[in-house]
Each structure stands twice: as C-alpha cells, then as structure tokens.
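re: ur question from yesterday

yeah so i grabbed the chain u mentioned. its 175 aa long if i counted rite. heres the sequnce exactly as i have it in my notes:
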Amino acid sequence: ISGVLNGTTNFILDQLANGAELAVAVSAAQKNGYAERDSQLDLNGTDAAQKLVLLARAAFDVELPLSSIEIQGIEDLNANQIRNNDRITRLVAECRRESHGFAARVSPVELPRDHPLARVSGVENRLLIQSRTGKSWDVCGSGAGRWPTTEAVLADLFDLWRNSVVNEEEQECVA
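ran it thru and got these structure tokens back, copy pasting raw so excuse formatting
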C-alpha cells in the first residue's frame, strides 16, 4: 500500500510549488480550515504515519509499531526545493511486505506528473493498493477540513455501533 494520506500536507505542498513560503502555506491551510492551530503532526509526517499503522492493520492484519516507520516530514522544505516542472512532490506513506516482515516509511517523494499520487491536488488523499496477485486499486477523496473529518468520524462511529450490534446478536444466538 502507498498513498498521500494527509490532505493538509498535500495542500501545503501545492502552495509551496506555487512559490509560497512554508509559514504562509501553513497559515493558508489554517485559514481554510485544513490545518489545526498546531500542525506539527501534519508537518513532521506523524499524522500520515499514524494512518499508515491503521492501514497496515487492515491490509496485512499486522500491528505495525509507529516506531518501526521511517518518518521524514515536510517541515524543512521550501518553495525552491520542490519547484520542478517535470516532477511533483508529495508526502508519501508506504508499507510493503518483505521477506523479513514489513517495511514502512513516510517521506516527501518527487513523482513524475503522470504518477497517480502526483495527480492529487489540494486536500485530496489517494491510496494505491496492490495485491500479491497483481490486482490494483486506487481510492481517493478529500482528506482535510471540517466536513471530510466529520464524515470519517461518523463512519467510524457507525462501524463501531454496527459491530457491537452484530456481536450482541451473535451472543444472543449462542445463549
């Protein structure tokens, strides 16, 4: 699995690519409701790494410790470093199964313009999933701001409720 998992950093990287300084880009993200007042977890890559832990659990049924993920954020990048007409910089989170276990990292990556992860813009997120059989999936959607966050929280709450109802029904059937 690999993806752009943090819409806030994606928005900020787009701002940097357009010539903004990091502080100005972060301020714009905050004013638009995409970044919290303290956006350190977004900027240093921790937020994307935390999401990668959850995705690894779902994809591989493994408890991936946050400490096992190599993390490099975008807090040290500036507009001059990411201006490149041929490539687009994205904060990419990836986890892959290897012969000795799992390798996971979050870091800024320069991608060719036609790469699926380079095609996300603004606060979009995109996840690429590739199975062992070679089948691939590409999932994308908004990833920052009031409404996408609200939708995600509500979906999680409904999942928890649904699971608790199913578990209660299963226990009633056994009794």
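noticed a couple things. The longest helix spans residues 146-174. also The first strand starts at residue 2 and ends at 4.
anyway ttyl
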